[in-house]
Amino acid sequence: MTQQHPSSPPSPAAGLPLAEKASLTSGAGDFVTQGSEAAGAPAVSMSDGPHGLRLPKESGDGGQVDLHSAAPATCFPPAVALGSSWNPELAEEVAGAIAAEAAEHGVGVVLGPGINIKRSPLCGRNFEYFSEDPLVSSELGGAMVRGLQNAGVGAALKHYAANNQETDRMRVSADIDERPLREIYLRAFERIVRRDRPWSVMASYNGVNGVPVSEHTRLLTDILRGEWGFDGIVMSDWGAVRDRVAALRAGLDLQMPGTGGRTDREVVAAVESGALDEAVLDRAVDRLVAFARRTAVPVRPTGSAGADDRHRLAGRAADQCVVLLRNEPALLPLDPAAGSVAVIGELARTPRFQGAGSSQVTPTRLDVPLAGLRELATGAEVRFAAGYALPGADEGEGDKERADEAVRLAAESDTAVLFLGLPAQDESEGFDRDHIELPTAQTELLDRVLAVNPRVVVVLSNGGVVRTAPWQDRVPALVEGWLLGQAGGGALARVLFGAVNPSGKLAETVPLRLEDAPSHLSFPGEEGRARYGEGVFVGYRGYDARRCEVAFPFGHGLSYTTYGYRDLRVAENEDGTGFRVRLTVTNTGSVAGREIVQVYSGGPAGSRVLRPVRELRAFASVFLEPGESREVAVEVARHDLAYYSERVGGWRVEGGTYRVEAGASSRDIRATAEVDVTGDPSGLRLTGRNTLAEWLGHPVGGPLLAERFARARAGTDREGQGAPADPVMRRFLADVPLDVICEFPQSPVPPGTVAELSAEVEARTAAGRERQEV
Ligand code: BGC
Q: Could you give the count of Cα atoms lying within 13 Å of 604 in the half-sphere of its Cβ?
């Protein structure tokens, strides 16, 4: 039994029989937990998630769900699109609307958001994730957690952790060094858990460094709860648990879905045999009871007005997700009042608006781009030709006729708008892609259309990036429409006709070739292991470090107006917790628009570890009328400048000069400033095994050793504070441990002094007497 502190409230587990406690730690059905009247814990209904609800049909079947016939719910833009909005307020509003819809249906927990990092363009589930960057992922994902939970519906932050591929996802081990694990793969989870306090976290299918995540004590307990202070429940991904007792012990509170009592009996037997400490079970039960009480929201129907409002919100959200990749010469926006437009591509009539798998929503209605264009055209003539068939067979019956008709239409029209994209079967939860090409029938059609009419706009529909390099320079206008949810058709029409000024920016890099992707050689791994060999150099961090040209860089996105950046200033906060970065942005064009300002940092020079050229530290949206200027201010936390030191076993801010950059994309830096940062005191305990360079670089040990050298050589060496004058010798000795140097016959530091020096460093550090001068 759990030990009760005299003043703490009674443990709900305390009064329950063992079998009931065990049953509470697994689901009662596919999407519902076990309730307990005795414990005051109602059963909790859950629903996927993340961009809308996958609602069970009203079947009274005790939570059994037919994945393919969910009842209608609003399909908001999936994360790939919402991520491109770079707009946390919007994400929070969307999540609030999902929560209201959930509450109408008695759903207490929405299974999302998914915040895994897009490690490779090939991941079949990239459409469900926000970005290749942890800051974008945490700002958008955290906003969704707040939006859900502020409306009384629990979030399930998923998939914790390092679920970056679908290939072999239920067995593969993601083998990741501690630094990239902390800086890239856990970082968004850490930020959201600390700041937004999700009520639940979903443990992923995969393993990390050889241990299945469901049984990973270090991830589920030491880091999640111990370091980050998580106070919710950890649930398994569906069917992820292999060893229920080991999972409980590691910190997994809830197995989903239920197993009809089979694994509950294993838990009972383990407690009875003494193999499982009952206190472990009690802790999980107490958390589950608290969780059930938190999520017990009253049903709040909003009626059909709610559905209309949600559809409008889905459209408003989609407006901000569209990314204008290219507009040169400015072909867009099209004039709705005049001219003729050939709309080509089956995707204009049969849109793809979400990905496949557990997140698939049955939409309440569907806006079609072609209909949207026709609706907005006041005088322009809009004609349509399918051009290709979906699903995209290259040589099927009638393909030639379809393409010929489209080329004819393009030749007769002022402008051709080509809707291209990935067929639904190309990307889904459950498998990865093996290339990033568009179907050949579509690119061949594009070539033929360009041959008869150069005024071509390409609109893309895709959940993962596609290769644009072979043709992007021949196409004046290119719009990335991602998968935009049920109201995306209207949004695309509004952008094309200029009713909406596009403002989305890429939250992931579009590479020239798949082979350029930093993870390419180790994705998806082999023989059950995926070795994350690129380390922290994921996405733009990797393209930049290798000076690799890209098709479109991270953060890129154009507008129908232009923006000027000036007066970048960086000031340290008085309390030393970070920096305030300010700059002035001006709308230098002729239409109103929203600019997403990105702030990156790089450095410091001479870092002990290899650091990315630049890393996103903050971003903000600013809405500007033509000619208007505004000051944008963002905070960069000092902690965010840290790297994770494996040697020290913690985060370290290195002292030195950092570059602070403000840009319109990661490769369109408009202003740069520098800021001097004082480093964290060294956490390194110096011993004889530390090299000369490490000793000399240590804030306390360095001056001390230099002093000894100088003293020993007084009068003979006026240079280099006692270090050898010969530069080659200096470099040679830099990597030699001090205890080896001490053994050299001419050593200024005799053997036996190292222990004394180490003790002196400890004492001075402890006393805070850090003398920088010699
Ligand atoms: C997916 C989760 C989802 C769960 C329930 C799993 O296969 O990985 O994201 O929430 O199923 O549908």
A: 18
The two beta strands, 233-236 and 200-203, are parallel
Q: Which atom of ligand 1 is nearest to the CA of 49?
A: 10
Task: State which ligand 1 atom lies nearest to the alpha carbon of 31.
Answer: 5
The pocket around ligand 1, CB under 6 angstroms, is made up of 48-49, 111, 158, 237-238, 358
Q: Which CATH architecture has domain 563-677?
A: Sandwich (2.60)
What class is the 18-294 domain? Answer: alpha beta
* Greatest C-alpha distance within the chain: 93
Q: Which of 676, 695, 773, 680 is nearest to 734 (CA)?
A: 695
Where are the domains positioned within the chain?
18-294, 307-508, 563-677, 692-773
Instruction: Please state whether beta strands 656-665 and 593-602 pair in parallel, antiparallel, or not at all (unpaired).
Output: antiparallel
pLDDT digits (tens, 9 = 90+) for 313-326: 999 999 999 999 99
- Which of 238, 359, 431 best tests ligand 1's pocket when mutated (most atoms within 8 Å of CB)? 238
The DSSP output letter for 589 is S
Task: Give one DSSP letter per residue of 441-502, joined into a string.
Answer: HHHHHHHHHHHH-S-EEEEEE-SS----TTTGGG-SEEEE-----TTHHHHHHHHHTTSS--
* pLDDT tens per residue, range 555-612: 999 999 999 999 999 999 999 899 999 999 999 999 999 999 999 999 898 898 999 9
CATH number for the 307-508 domain, one of 3.60.21.10, 3.40.50.1700, 3.40.50.360, 3.40.50.300?
A: 3.40.50.1700
CA 500/CA 515 separation, integer angstroms = 36
For residues 308 and 186, what is the distance between their CA atoms, to the nearest angstrom? 38
Cα of 64 vs centre of ligand 1, distance in Å, is 14
Kindly report whether the global pTM for this prediction surpasses the value 0.90.
yes
Cβ atoms 350, 364 nearer than 8 A = no
Active site residue 237: yes
The identity of residue 499, as a single letter, is: A
Expressed in angstroms, the distance from the first to the final Cα of the chain is 60
